[in-house]
Amino acid sequence: MQNRITSLFNIKYPIIQAGMIWNSGWRLASAVSNAGGLGLLGAGSMYPEVLREHILKCKKATDKPFGVNVPMLYPNIEDIMDIIVEEGVKIVFTSAGNPKTWTKWLQEKGITVVHVVSSVKFALKAQDVGVDAVVAEGFEAGGHNGRDETTTLTLIPMVKDQIDIPLIAAGGIATGKAMLACMILGADAVQVGSRFVASEESSAHDAFKNVVVDAKEGDTQLTLKELAPVRLIKNKFYNDIQELYKTSPTIDELKDLLGRARAKRGMFEGDLEDGELEIGQISGLIDDIKPAAQIVADMMVEFEEAKRKIAEL
Asked: pLDDT class for 147, splitting at 50, 70, 90?
């Protein structure tokens, strides 16, 4: 199918794999791109030279377009951007920062720029600085999230009503039915995170993947809003946060509890007790681990079936 997003990225299907930290390495990104979607490398969990290695391996594994997701709050941002340009990456998704900082610089080097937002206000700001598209992410999503807790179902039509550039929906999307729903609401494509965590090619630890498969409704929660809102699985670390909240903690006390490398310990190293296990609410609907190509294919089959059912109505 062809629309503004498939044309913008030169891809077959309007499915973008989210560039999730500790999950989105070259194996996953190349598999999604080879299957007709757009794979993204998650630069947020990579030192600059590690990112270069993943870019090089991704280029060998696919001749299809792929991109890099860059959270702008991370250090070494200048080195990361330089490597992206040096290695000829043509698509960059920016998040967690001001899109004005890098958009023009990247576009002047022939790179398509997409910015991730969680509100209409930030979607308009991203459009005003000239990004090529936006991802509007509802608070169902896993990982770092918007403070306003706006759901995907309400966020997408509100953003669509205010912007002219292509719109990608994110947050709580793991099926073809959800993809169709988002496109009916005005999205040109969907960005999928949690479903690809539970893929064979995801770089997540197997123990974390199994936790995602076993998750049920209500097993995730948005927390740590005083620092940076994050949705994660309720485990010992989550319970420790809740106990600390009972004492009306300061920001510094919350930071001390969080410490460093919690996400790596949980998602990449498999520490299910004290690690940060970032995943979306849709994990309650994920019940298996399968190849990324199968995930893309299943979504498209279900998307077409849902379209036919809608036509019958």
From this structure: confident
> Exposure string (b/e) for 243-279, b if CB count within 10 Å is 16 or more?
eeeeeebeeeebeeebeeebbbbbbbebbbeebbbbb
Comparison of pLDDT for 21 and 84, the residue scoring more: 84
Q: Which residues contact 27 (CB under 8 A, 6 or more apart)?
A: 61, 201, 202, 203
User: What is the DSSP secondary-structure string of 138-158?
Assistant: -TTSSEE--TT---HHHHHHH
Euclidean distance between the first and the last CA atom of the chain, given in angstroms as a whole number: 22
- 99-112, pLDDT tens digit by residue? 999 999 999 999 99
Q: How far apart are CA 131 and CA 297, in angstroms?
A: 29
The reported pTM is 0.94
Closest-CA residue to 133 (of 158, 115, 120): 115
Instruction: Report the residue count for the chain.
Output: 313
Q: Of 118, 92, 99, 74, which Cα lies nearest the Cα of 263?
A: 74
> What single DSSP character describes residue 8?
H
Please tell me what DSSP assigns to residue 246. Answer: T
4-203+283-312 to CATH, choices 3.20.20.70, 3.30.460.10, 3.90.1150.10, 3.65.10.10: 3.20.20.70
Domain ranges across the chain: 4-203+283-312
Span 127-146, average pLDDT: 92
What 8-state DSSP symbol labels residue 72?
A: T
